[in-house]
Amino acid sequence: MPAPTAADARRPRVIAVSNQKGGEGKTTTAVNLAASLAAAEQRVLLIDLDPQGNASSSVGFPRGSVDQGTYEVLMGSATIADVSQPCELATLRVVPATPHLAGAEVELVPIAERESALARALRPIVEGSEFDFVLLDCPPSLGLLTVNAFVASDSVLIPMQARYFSLEGLGALKGTIDSVRAALNAELSIEGIVFCMFDPRTNLAQQVVAEVREHFADLVYDTVIPINIRLSESPSFGKPALLYDIESKGAQAYLALAREVLARIEGGAAA
């Protein structure tokens, strides 16, 4: 059965990829899931909301290489259509982060309905049929940029490591999602939880996975992303893993995750 498209759903699915802790695999997941969905013939827009700009450089747009990007979109001086850039994969486009994005948290404060700036900018994309997925790479914090992502999104995809402190971070993130759902976006849900940099040989990893599955049940993806050197190397070449080494375990894991994401969406639509 073919994967769902924007024509079927009449709007793209907007997914925030978020974890308040750094080093959990957030940007790696945003970039490689976007690329893997594009490889599955889905039309994907990747928006870099992290001032560090790592998602941008991971798809060929290093810091300082573009004049306009996410900051200008949030501040209303440019549209997404103005600043989105083509990538090596034909069905993947990116809105890169520029150095100015670091000041957006402060500059958005006096703006009316500041939490909805991204949602307003995304409205033409959501109402159009150009994309099947919009993935938002959020900063490793729960500040105003992340709140904007949650307000604009249908769901949140949570990458995490199988570590004790990652469990604490998951609880804080769940609280933020609940708060945004109560006050700003009643439709926001958790898309799923994916374990990254996973080492199945440790007892702690197995215990953390079991505890997360106990509390979140079917929200935890069956696919896990292993520790893989190719995933670490590919950003320095400005490529997602599948364009750097498609046979690597990391690239194959993200291709499997994309298939699982599509299958779950298709199953939910059928239900």
Please, could you describe this protein's structure?
The chain is α/β, with parallel strands linked by helices. It has a single domain, classed as Rossmann fold, CATH 3.40.50. It has 13 helices and 7 strands. It has helices spanning 6-9, 26-39, 54-58, 70-75, 80-83, 104-107, 117-127, 144-152, 164-183, 203-216, 229-233, 241-244, 249-270; strands at residues 13-17, 44-48, 85-86, 92-95, 133-137, 155-160, 189-195. Strands 3-4-2-5-1-6-7 form a 7-stranded mixed β-sheet, sandwiched between helices. Helix 7 (117-127) runs parallel beside helix 8. The longest helix has 22 residues, at 249-270. The relative contact order is 0.19.
Give the secondary structure arrangement, pairings included:
Layout: H1 6-9, E1 13-17, H2 26-39, E2 44-48, H3 54-58, H4 70-75, H5 80-83, E3 85-86, E4 92-95, H6 104-107, H7 117-127, E5 133-137, H8 144-152, E6 155-160, H9 164-183, E7 189-195, H10 203-216, H11 229-233, H12 241-244, H13 249-270
Helix pairs in contact: 2-13, 7-8
What is the makeup of the main sheet?
7 strands, mixed
* Low-confidence runs of at least 5 consecutive residues: 1-9
User: What is the fourth-level CATH superfamily?
Assistant: P-loop containing nucleotide triphosphate hydrolases
Shape: globular
Quote the distance from N terminus to C terminus. 15 Å
Q: Total domains, how many?
A: 1
Determine and state the CATH class.
Alpha Beta
Tell me the series of helices and strands, N- to C-terminal: HEHEHHHEEHHEHEHEHHHH
Please list the strands of the largest sheet in the order they lie side by side.
3-4-2-5-1-6-7
How many individual helices? 13
Q: What is the helical fraction, as a range of percent?
A: 40-55%
- Beta-strand content: 5-15%
CATH topology: Rossmann fold
Task: Using the CA coordinates, give the radius of gyration.
Answer: 17 Å
CATH-derived architecture: 3-Layer(aba) Sandwich
